[in-house]
Specification:
The protein is α/β, with parallel strands linked by helices. The protein has 20 helices and 9 strands.
Length: 477
C-alpha cells in the first residue's frame, strides 16, 4: 500500500511539473496566458475542481493546451481565408465543430466579412453518394485499412444488407472468414478479388442512388452549388473527404469544381490532386518530425461534437416554396458527448475572453504559431504523464467510417503487449517472421503512459517505429 501511495505522489508531482511547463509556454503569448487565467476565475461549468479526478485533469489541460492550439489554428485559417478572398468557410462535422464555434466568436467580435457555416458531413455520408457513379473506383475507399477491419465491415461501408453481404462473401470465398480481422496484405488481395465480382457493384449502385439524390439536395440547400467563393476547414490527415465532395459536386454540375481545404495537418493528399488545394497548418506531407510527436486519433477524439455521426440525409418537412433537408445521425450520440459538451462550454468562455482582448494580438508569423503549438502538443501527445494518459486515454474512439467497435483511444497494454510493440518485435510480427498478434492502440504513447513502468524506454521504441514508418513513406514519394 505504501508503494502505491508513493507512486501516486510521484505521478501527482510529475503532473504538477507538467502544468508548470504548459503555463511557462503560455507566457510566450500573453493573450493566451491572460485568457486562461480569466477563464479559471469564472464560475465552474461542472468540472470537479476539488480533487485530481479525470474531469479536473481534462479541464486544466484543455484550457492550457488544447484551446490555445485550436485558437492559433483558427486564427491562421481566418487570416488565410481573408487573404485569399474567400467569402464563406464550411467547417466540417464533427472534427470542425469546436473550430466552428471559435471562428464564429472571433469573426463576430472583429466584424470580419466571412460567412461561417457548419456542414453536417462524414466520410461515410459523402462516399455513399459518390458510389452511385464511382464504379470499381469505390474499392479505393471501401478497402482501406484501419483498426480491426473485416470483410463484414467492408460490406457495411458499402451499405449492403446482411443477405447481400453474405451473397458477396460466398462469391469471394469469405463465408468462413466473414468476421476475421484482415491484415493489410489480405486487404490488398481482397480488393483485387472484389474487383472481379460484378454483382457487388450492382448492389452498391442500387443503395447509392437514393443517397446521391438526398446528399445533393442537402448540399444545394447549404449553398455548395452556389457561385460564392468558399473553402472547407477540417482536422485533415489525408484529404479524401474533400476529394469525394468535389467529385459529387462535379457530377451534379457536369463540370469542373475546384475546392480549397484548410487542414490542421496532412499526412498525404489523394493521388493526382493539386497541392495548392490542400493547405496545412501544423504539418504537411513532407514533414516528418512533427508527425512523430503527434496523434491524429487523439486530436479528433478531443475536438469533436456531442452529436452522432452523419449517416446520410432526408427530407425534414415540406415548407413552401421549397423542401428542407436535414442530416441523419446514427442512433447514438458521440460516445464522449458529456465531455464534448463540457469542452464546448469551456471553449465559448475562452473564445469570449480571448475575443475581447485579441485586438492586442501582435502579428505572428506562421512559423512562430507552429512553434508555439508544437511546444504544447509535443509533450501532451508524444510523452504524456500518467495523469494525462488516464484522463484522455479512456475517451472512446473508432477509426472506422461507421464507428463500429469503439475502444479507449489509449487501449490498455499490459507488459506482454508492450514487449510485442517494441520496434524490432513489431516489425518482425508485421512481416510474419515472428509469431504473435499486435493489438493496435489509437494513441500508443497514451497506452504506454497508462501502464507506467519503463515508460521512457517504451516511448523511445514507439518514436523509433514511427520515425521508421514516416521516413519509409517519404522515401517512396
Amino acid at each position: 500500500m505504501k508503494r502505491l501511495e508513493e507512486e501516486y505522489l510521484d505521478n501527482r508531482e510529475q503532473y504538477r511539473k507538467r502544468m508548470e511547463y504548459y503555463r511557462a509556454v503560455l507566457q510566450r503569448n500573453h493573450l493566451h496566458m491572460r485568457t486562461a487565467d480569466r477563464v479559471k476565475l469564472l464560475p465552474t461549468v461542472g468540472a470537479d475542481r476539488d480533487g485530481m479526478g479525470n474531469w479536473r485533469v481534462r479541464e486544466e489541460v484543455f484550457l492550457h493546451v488544447w484551446l490555445p492550439v485550436l485558437t492559433e489554428y483558427v486564427e491562421w485559417v481566418l487570416e488565410e481565408a481573408v487573404k485569399n478572398g474567400f467569402k464563406r468557410l464550411y467547417f466540417l462535422a464533427r472534427d470542425g465543430y469546436m473550430m466552428y464555434l471559435m471562428a464564429k466568436k472571433l469573426v463576430d467580435a472583429r466584424g470580419i466579412d466571412l460567412d461561417i457555416r457548419y456542414l453536417k458531413i462524414s466520410r461515410f455520408s459523402i462516399r455513399s453518394a459518390e458510389y452511385y457513379f464511382a464504379g470499381k473506383a469505390a474499392l479505393d475507399t471501401l478497402c482501406v485499412g484501419g483498426i480491426d477491419i473485416s470483410f463484414e465491415k467492408i460490406m457495411k461501408r458499402a451499405n449492403l444488407t446482411d443477405d447481400e453481404a453474405l451473397h458477396i462473401a460466398r462469391l469471394a470465398g469469405y463465408t468462413e472468414n466473414y468476421k476475421k480481422v484482415l491484415s493489410y496484405q489480405q486487404l490488398y488481395t481482397l480488393k483485387k478479388e472484389l474487383s472481379g465480382i460484378g454483382q457487388l457493384f450492382v448492389y452498391i449502385k442500387k443503395h447509392a442512388k437514393n443517397c446521391y439524390n438526398t446528399t445533393v439536395f442537402y448540399l444545394r440547400q447549404e449553398g455548395l452549388l452556389e457561385d460564392t467563393s468558399y473553402a472547407l476547414v477540417d482536422s485533415g490527415w489525408v484529404g479524401t473527404l474533400q476529394l469525394s465532395l468535389q467529385r459529387v459536386l462535379e457530377h451534379e454540375k457536369a463540370g469542373k469544381v475546384r475546392l480549397q481545404g484548410y487542414y490542421f495537418g496532412l499526412y498525404a493528399r489523394p493521388e493526382g490532386t493539386d497541392v495548392s488545394q490542400y493547405r496545412a497548418f501544423y504539418f504537411g506531407e513532407k514533414e516528418v518530425l512533427r508527425k512523430i510527436g503527434f496523434s491524429n486519433c487523439l486530436f479528433e477524439t478531443v475536438f469533436s461534437a456531442p452529436e452522432g455521426m452523419t449517416q446520410g440525409y432526408r427530407l425534414k418537412e415540406q415548407e413552401l416554396p421549397e423542401s428542407v433537408y436535414e442530416a441523419v445521425e446514427n442512433d447514438n450520440r458521440n460516445p464522449n458527448a458529456d465531455v464534448m459538451e463540457h469542452f464546448a462550454k469551456l471553449l465559448l468562455q475562452y473564445a469570449s475572453c480571448y475575443g475581447e482582448t485579441s485586438d492586442d494580438r501582435a502579428a505572428a508569423t506562421h512559423k512562430k504559431q507552429v512553434s508555439f503549438v508544437e511546444s504544447l502538443l509535443k509533450p501532451m501527445m508524444g510523452n504524456p504523464t500518467q495523469w494525462e494518459a488516464e484522463a484522455f486515454g479512456e475517451l472512446l474512439f473508432c477509426d472506422d467510417v461507421l464507428e463500429l467497435q469503439l475502444q479507449p483511444v489509449a487501449a490498455w497494454w499490459d507488459e506482454e503487449e508492450l514487449y510485442k510493440q517494441r520496434f524490432f518485435n513489431k516489425i518482425l510480427i508485421k512481416l510474419n517472421l515472428k509469431s504473435g498478434i499486435l493489438h493496435e492502440s489509437a494513441w500508443a504513447e497514451g497506452s504506454i503512459a497508462r501502464f507506467g513502468k519503463k515508460a521512457g524506454s517504451h516511448m523511445r521504441q514507439e518514436r523509433l517505429y514511427k520515425s521508421f514508418m514516416y521516413l519509409r513513406k517519404a522515401a517512396y514519394k
